[in-house]
Amino acid sequence: MSTKNREWLSWIKVIVISAIIALGIRTFLFTPIIVDGPSMLPTLENGDHLIVNKLNYQIGEPERFDIVVFHATQKRDYIKRVIGLPGEHIAYRNETLYVNGTPVEEPFIQERVESLQEGSHYTHDFTLEDLPGEYEKIPEGYVLVLGDNRMNSTDSRMIGLIPVDQIVGEAQLTYWPLSHFEWKT
């Protein structure tokens, strides 16, 4: 085999191995997603580009306030925030989240709630029993999710609890536009 052919073969090997590694990373570890819609305002804006960590939930469980991407339908993924975890009862009263009867602060929407005009609602009152499925507690293997833009979000209030096995991963990095660059914690 000539030197030129060996060089071409070497380049082809590098390209194939690189493609396999990239495919493996995208399939098992990280994947990009683009925010489509206003349901996560003010945290995420329409058109924000994110990196979703798929590994977190292969070795652990979602935690309260994680921003997750999940399969809402066979053709569409949604991005929302985990509010309720297995074994919990969730209720909203007077703009306050209650987990098992205990008030829990939501700092990511606090500014919007404080700016409401009198008589307005950011999150309408509801209990877990009001949601599809009429559960008294969130069952094992499910979470309750809400968009941060509570007045314009299709979330657990409409579609019910989300099976954990439908979660793609946790949104961990906004990388575009650069003015929105941020690690999510």
Write out key terms for the chains shown:
elongated, Umud Fragment, subunit A, 4-stranded antiparallel sheet, 8-stranded antiparallel sheet, 185 residues, alpha+beta
Write the layout of secondary structure elements.
Layout: H1 3-28, E1 30-34, E2 49-53, H2 56-59, E3 67-71, E4 77-84, E5 90-93, E6 96-99, E7 102-104, H3 110-114, E8 126-127, E9 142-146, H4 156-159, E10 162-163, E11 167-176, E12 182-183
Antiparallel strand pairs: 1-2, 2-11, 3-4, 3-11, 4-9, 5-6, 5-8, 6-7, 9-10, 11-12
Number of strands: 12
Number of helices: 4
Query: Mean of residue pLDDT?
Result: 87
**Count of all domains:** 1
Could you give the distance between the termini? 54 Å
Helicity, as a percent range = 10-25%
CATH architecture: Ribbon
* CATH level 3 topology: Umud Fragment, subunit A
Domain Peptidase S26: 9-176
Membrane topology: Single-pass type II membrane protein
EC number: 3.4.21.89
Protein name: Signal peptidase I
Short description:
By secondary structure, the protein is an alpha+beta fold. The protein is 21% helix and 30% strand.
Would you give an account of this structure?
With 185 residues, the protein is α+β, with helices and mostly antiparallel strands. The protein has helices spanning 3-28, 56-59, 110-114, 156-159, and strands spanning 30-34, 49-53, 67-71, 77-84, 90-93, 96-99, 102-104, 126-127, 142-146, 162-163, 167-176, 182-183. The chain has a single domain (31-183), classed as Ribbon (Umud Fragment, subunit A), CATH 2.10.109. The chain has four helices and twelve strands. The strands form two sheets. Strands 1, 2, 3, 4, 9, 10, 11 and 12 form an eight-stranded antiparallel β-sheet that branches. A four-stranded antiparallel β-sheet has the order 7-6-5-8, with no helix packed on it. A hairpin with a 2-residue loop joins β5 and β6. It is elongated, with a radius of gyration of 21 Å. The chain starts with a helix and ends with a strand. It is a single-pass type II membrane protein.
